[in-house]
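Hey team,

Filing this mostly as a record. A colleague (T.K.) asked me to run one chain through the structure pipeline before their review meeting, and I want the input and output archived in the tracker in case anyone asks later how it was produced. No errors, nothing strange. Just documentation.

Input sequence:
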Amino acid sequence: MKEILLASLLGLATTSSAMIGIAVGLYVPISKRLLGCILAFASGGLISALAIELAFNGAVQLHHLGFSVGAAWLLVGSGFAIGAIIYSVFSRYLIQKRREHDAKELIELLSRCDLLRHLPPQEIEIILPSVRTRRLAAGQVLFNAGDPGDILYIVARGEIEILEANGSNGVPRDQPIASLREGEAFGEMALLSGSPRTATARSAGDVELAEIDRKDFERLVAEDQVLARAVEQLSHDRALNNLSAGTPGAASWAAIASRSLQRVTQRGQ
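Output structure:
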């Protein structure tokens, strides 16, 4: 009777965890990461219940074959331990391979970026800890005009649309005035000047970005004069493009970006 009650409680716990995970996923607006953790816990519970049943049946069969209770459980436990070791080693191997693959893809992306293409692969690999990845769904706004500018972005996959801040110059607010594709960097002007964003950035489809925050960006610029000149050239080119397109304040933006860049590079001298 005690064994039946214990098995019933274990079965209830494992099956209810799966149902709770499904209900939460359907009706509670939580992050995908948290939902994945809940479902992983539920899956682990079900696998554990199955493993316990298999272990018990295996020990019983070994005992019927003439093994003592202790020897039977020792054999079953050894089998589970060997399986766990093989699983752990293989999973670690796959994780390491995945990380190496992701790092290689990121190095290839950064080597195509106008700002970093001058760096050899081994130097790009050094800055990888400063680079994070971010994914956007189609139509998702990355930042709005007026938001703080504290991150440099590089398009890894997809396309980013730059929207007019206030719909000036006869351009509707939801109408793109520029598009950025794989390997192109953006967000550097607000990052250098410390001023708010002057436009809105939105994904044209599913997008993957690489991003570097202000602290790491300033350190990289201070340590690399070629990067500093590349950022300055990019800022000047975009300021001139804004000026030719009639965007308000383009000339002042160019002056602010140049002064900010000079302060950043002087700190590295």
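Quick notes for T.K.: The chain has a mean pLDDT of 76. The chain is about 60% helix and 15% strand.
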